[in-house]
Amino acid sequence: MKTIAIICPGIHSPQLTESFVKAVRHIIEPKEYLILPTEQYAPYCAIAIKQWLKKYYPSPKNAPRLSFFSFSAGVVGSIIAANQWQLEGGQINSFIAFDGWAMPLIGNFPIYRVSHDRFTHETSAIFGGGEKGFYADAEVEHLELWRSPNTCKGWRIIDNGMKVRCSLLEYLELRH
Prior knowledge:
Layout: E1 3-8, H1 14-24, E2 33-35, H2 46-56, E3 65-71, H3 73-87, E4 92-98, E5 111-115, H4 118-125, E6 134-136, H5 142-147, E7 153-157, E8 163-167, H6 168-175
Parallel strand pairs: 1-2, 1-3, 3-4, 4-5, 5-6
Antiparallel strand pairs: 6-7, 7-8
Helix pairs in contact: 2-3
């Protein structure tokens, strides 16, 4: 079954998301993704995200699998929307939360937390999604994590706190 990447930006310039998409294009095939238009839909509102998704896929049961790439405020609405989508019969392939600091990441699908620094990752991991997450080291600015994932290096958390050094793009290739 086909998987569609759902990109849920935060509240920032659309150019940052354009840069993100260019950097991860080899991971998400062109025309295989949708970007939430945050000028029309609030990224922190699950109801708005579901309304937007239903424009493309009126029935979650008949929709392709979805992989969420969500950033900052986009994590807030999209984790709830993903859970609701699944409850309505939709399939969630994965959920990757970029800097969803202290946002509870709970779901019945694979969830991964990506953080711009170790502190953010460790203080957020207790809310879920950090067990096999990634954090930047050296730390990067919050917006830089989304704008330029191709320049970010850090640690991929494996099991039992073990870590492997890698780039953020290498991490994303494993998770999508």
